[in-house]
Amino acid sequence: PDATPQGLTTGVSTDLRVVTExxxxxxxxxxxxxxxxxxxxxxSVELLSPLRDNGDLTNGDEIQADGNYTTIVEGMFIVAPQTxxxxxxxxxxxxxxxxxxxxxxxxxxxxxxxxxxxxxxxxLSYQDSIETRWQDAIDASEDLEATRDALLSxxxxxxxxxxxxxxxxxxxxxxxxNNGFEAGVLLADPADGPLYGxxxxxxxxxxxxxxxxxxxxxxPLMSVGVPARPVSGNDDRNLGDPDExxxxxxxxxxxxxxxLEGLGGTDPASTVATLFDDAHCPxxxxxxxxxxxxxxxxxxxxxxxxAVSIFTHSAQLAGGELALLTGEEVDYERCLAHSxxxxxxxxxxxIVRTDGRSVFAVKAGFVAKYNHRFPNSIIQIAACxxxxxxxxxxxxxxxGVGYLTTFDGSVTVDFANEASLAFWSNLLENxxxxxxxxxxSPQVDPGHRHAAFxxxxxxxxxxxxxxxxxGFELGTLAAWDVxxxxxxxxxxxxxxxxxxxxxxxxxxxxxxxLNTGEINQVVCVPATATQLxxxxxxxxxxxxxxxxxxxxxxxxxxxxxxxGTETVIFxxxxxxxxxxxxxxxxxxxxGPLGDDNGVYYTGWRQLGLDLTPWxxxxxxxxxxxxDIGDSIxxxxxxxxxxxxx
Length: 645
Description:
Layout lengths: L1 E3 L3 E2 L4 E8 L6 E11 L5 E7 L17 E9 L5 E13 L4 E5 L3 E6 L4 H23 L4 H13 L4 E6 L5 E6 L4 E5 L57 E2 L3 E6 L2 H6 L5 H11 L6 E6 L5 H5 L6 E5 L2 E3 L5 E8 L2 H6 L1 H4 L6 E6 L2 E6 L1 H7 L7 E5 L8 H7 L5 E5 L5 H16 L5 H6 L13 E5 L4 E2 L17 E3 L2 E4 L13 E5 L10 E7 L6 E10 L13 E7 L5 E8 L8 E2 L16 E2 L3 E6 L7 E9 L8 E10 L1
Parallel strand pairs: 2-9, 12-19, 13-24, 14-15, 14-16, 16-21, 21-22
Antiparallel strand pairs: 1-3, 3-6, 4-5, 4-7, 7-8, 7-9, 10-11, 11-12, 17-18, 18-20, 19-20, 22-23, 25-28, 26-27, 27-36, 28-35, 29-33, 29-34, 29-36, 30-31, 30-35, 32-33
């Protein structure tokens, strides 16, 4: 089961929403699904609540009969910190009358003291004091190694600090507080020149200055040649060519763009974004996030992207961990928003001070926690030490990343930019596969500590020219941009996907979502293409009561060309379907009870729409649901098997 929020705070009454996905064999009749509190070994302690798939928001369920069973456990109140354990029990009966039961895996629910604003402010003030003292030492040409030790001694004696330490490379100073909260300060030595992080002084055993190496002597951290595919979820999904990236969405992430521009040049990320924007067949949808736009939440959604380019600082922590800095500045309210990742015995986030700002930073565990299924992505990270050990590479590769390029040591900004830009240029302009693009890029930083540009994964990856994830078999909306209510589900009532295990759904605002929904994708229409083919299935509360009225929910498909001109190539509204719909065994949440005739649906319909006017062009295909006249009675459109033929 998945819980929202991710844990409970002591002394605070909390309504806990819990959802679990369940598939029931056709030969069984489901009798009940119940949520239990259990011991750490799974033994039942108490029944908490039934879980229902009824589309009723009073028990937290957004869509009826979609296979997600939900409950809200109201007023949970726990006094002492602890870990609660939750488990779902499904009971079903076979045609012969035999009862079958199945327990879910055990979910942990942490209970913690609430983080206080005072503690966050104390941590921020300590960071400010350390950074000021460090800059004073630089300005006075003091012994920086002695300054590091003096700052460590000072921090270790401050109130609320449970532990203080210098990172293994001595490039950052850390305080650990009593709830697991970690706050560090980068201690950059200006003598090293601009770096994507920091490095300690000469003679540090954990950060040796290596001799200049020939690129041929560098080796990947992990074996290559084995195609990386998503390891979670249903292994029977048809994921296509194992050498093709399954999403042509690109994220370019630059939290320190202004700082990079201040070094006397341009933000290298903007150059990468331009490469993606200018690419044609394959073509890309591009999200370029700079400075404060480069938030924590953007890194929660990495799984949508087949191309990820990151230029940022990193910070070493104890135990070989490394954090990548975001552009999101720290304040107490944001700390509360990220509390279940910041305040924990094993936090997946921390805060780091650099250049006068305290920002959030994420560890490898954060990526693994929120990004379960990458679309065979190619990822490039310009930051120090990312591949110094296997922690970050494994987090990516085990979640379905296809190829990762980054750096194994403290790297200069100039070299990291040169290598990263060459890699993307080789891929996008020269048409190289991932391994060839890497091999043709600079391999070793000629200055500083001679960090190597490393590569891990499948060297044969390429970006395709066809529409991506048109059957939604990745189990996510990877490759699609989403506005409003767009999701992937495995069933709706008795309506199953046309092919495979998943289908898309857009709506006029189901469940907690009040906005109308759309999905869109930038595609290269082949010169020989003639039509856009797909299936749709229209569900609505406006059948039959509002047929012939001014209330007309609609579904439309449009093509947006390279200069932004949108052409609607298919449009259908409620009145066009009223004579051929069927009653559904589900209800939607927004219609007042008793005031409508329930939900009706069209059944699956196949369309082939003319694409010849756009043959050979890069366009955006847009599938949208909308309201006319009201936003009370909801409609939802299932979409599947989208292809260009």
